Amino acid sequence: MTISASTPTIRIGSRKSQLALIQTYWVQEKLEKNFPNITFEVHKMSTQGDKILDVALAKIGDKGLFTKELELGMLQNETDLAVHSLKDLPTNLPEGLILGCVTERENPADALVLHEKLKDKQLETLPEGAVIGTSSLRRLAQLRYHFPHLEFKDVRGNLNTRLAKLDAGEYDALILAFAGLHRLGMSDRIHQIIPPEISLHAVGQGALGIECRAGDNNILNLLKSLEHTATAQRCYAERAFLRELEGGCQVPIGVNTQIEGEQLTLTGLVASLDGKKLVKDIVTGATADAEQIGIELAQKLRKQGAQEILDQILAEINRS
């Protein structure tokens, strides 16, 4: 791997949240280990999504909600790369920036976290009217489809804030990403890992995406040491699926990907907000054709009514 001898200190952009910093420091540590002669500095930034905590995500727009400020930092040469939870990174990046690396994925599943009074329950045994906290329209739509007897309430804030609201009794349960809880050392709070038959996960969930300037070969060469090929193939298929449907992070689109040998299987769905309409299908193909698999699945679902569902959802969000 060729790295210019004149490479200065490398500046890594990160959100200020606890989870974002844990993820960024992990990347910093790996790069320092791989390139001990280079200095890597973390630059902390606040994004729009971090500042607006009293409005549902779907109502404040989702294109770059957690990434725009980090991207400006790179475009203005204040930083050299940025670490994102890949699920937060839009599928269409600003001109001049690229997804330089996808790291090995944690379990991408959603997880159920319960209030102490319901600790012996699982999703299937929660009592009628139990209040479930989630800020994700994807989770909301799928859970309404499977469990119409439960109540759902928006929850914002970082992970510690959400858990405090749960423990205070504002919610009976929360649906959170397994990966975030695990990275924060809170796996003991998980009561159930939700199977994909109930909740397909978000595009890119569980993986880190490292963004950098296009054509910055020094940085791209550094990032090659962190790339995890199988995760990247899975996530490229998922992101192509989302991009083809022109759905943002806050639209009820769920996925699941599996690789066996040289074959990649992508499952995807689009659901209505009330959970009453759901279209779901599967496409399998060669791992080398990951993006084409995503495009093919999107086109398949569109023929089954996915576009009508998405159009209706966007109209509802714009009216609210």
From TrEMBL:
Pathway: Porphyrin-containing compound metabolism; protoporphyrin-IX biosynthesis; coproporphyrinogen-III from 5-aminolevulinate: step 2/4; Porphyrin-containing compound metabolism; chlorophyll biosynthesis. Residues 10-220 form the Porphobilinogen deaminase N-terminal domain. It catalyses: 4 porphobilinogen + H2O = hydroxymethylbilane + 4 NH4(+). Its EC number is 2.5.1.61. Binds 1 dipyrromethane group covalently. Residues 233-302 form the Porphobilinogen deaminase C-terminal domain. Gene3D superfamilies: Periplasmic binding protein-like II, Porphobilinogen deaminase, C-terminal domain. GO terms for molecular function: hydroxymethylbilane synthase activity. The modification S-(dipyrrolylmethanemethyl)cysteine is found at C249. The keyword Ligase does not apply. It holds the Pfam family Porphobil_deam. It comes from the Bacteria. One of its GO terms (biological process) is protoporphyrinogen IX biosynthetic process. Keywords: Porphyrin biosynthesis, Transferase. SUPFAM superfamilies: Periplasmic binding protein-like II, Porphobilinogen deaminase (hydroxymethylbilane synthase), C-terminal domain. Signal peptide: none annotated. Monomer. Tetrapolymerization of the monopyrrole PBG into the hydroxymethylbilane pre-uroporphyrinogen in several discrete steps. The porphobilinogen subunits are added to the dipyrromethane group. PANTHER family: PORPHOBILINOGEN DEAMINASE (PTHR11557). This is Porphobilinogen deaminase. It comes from Trichodesmium erythraeum (strain IMS101). The lineage of its organism: Bacteria, Bacillati, Cyanobacteriota, Cyanophyceae, Oscillatoriophycideae.
